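Final report, section 2: Outcomes. Of the targets proposed, Cytochrome c oxidase subunit 2 is the one most frequently requested by collaborating groups, and we therefore present its record in full.
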Amino acid sequence: MAHAAQVGLQDATSPIMEELITFHDHALMIIFLICSLVLYALFLTLTTKLTNTNISDAQEMETVWTILPAIILVLIALPSLRILYMTDEVNDPSLTIKSIGHQWYWTYEYTDYGGLIFNSYMLPPLFLEPGDLRLLDVDNRVVLPIETPIRMMITSQDVLHSWAVPTLGLKTDAIPGRLNQTTFTATRPGVYYGQCSEICGANHSFMPIVLELIPLKIFEMGPVFTL
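The predicted structure is given below as tokens.
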């Protein structure tokens, strides 16, 4: 999860998030090179005595500053489109979870386990135990296996919400009357936090999401749901 004074992105827990971090670094390097070139040109303009102020035709320079930005845009667009299509792929998920947004809590349904349904509310400060995170911990966590393709079906019962877990690279809108889906495969166990990322009313800040990811063997052994 994020920590104080953090500059970069959270550590990746899924292949999609790893790709997003790689693309972020790739685009940031291109931006750094462009800014360096522009600053160098400005520095030369301010410090060099201009001796060719009467030049009115520079076709070679115009060709370069037309083609070079186009090449840069292609270098950014190709990996971006690749990741965009990867996020939309649904490759035979082994488990399906339905998430329903309410004002202001989440309802989860394990459709493959006889319709197991439970609500997930934020823990009030008076109920927090040592080690719990204020405004982030919930009474019922979503327990899921790692290294297993999981499909999330996301919708809303009242207003717009957004189901987001940054460390997994997930952010999907919950829209009333519409069922959106996203898939992910977690690569390591742990407890990961998210929040509603769509302004949905007075208590928008109090809709945390907590995923507890465990090995598949433990998940299959029995009731691991924290109800």
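Residues 107 and 215 are 23 Å apart (CA to CA).
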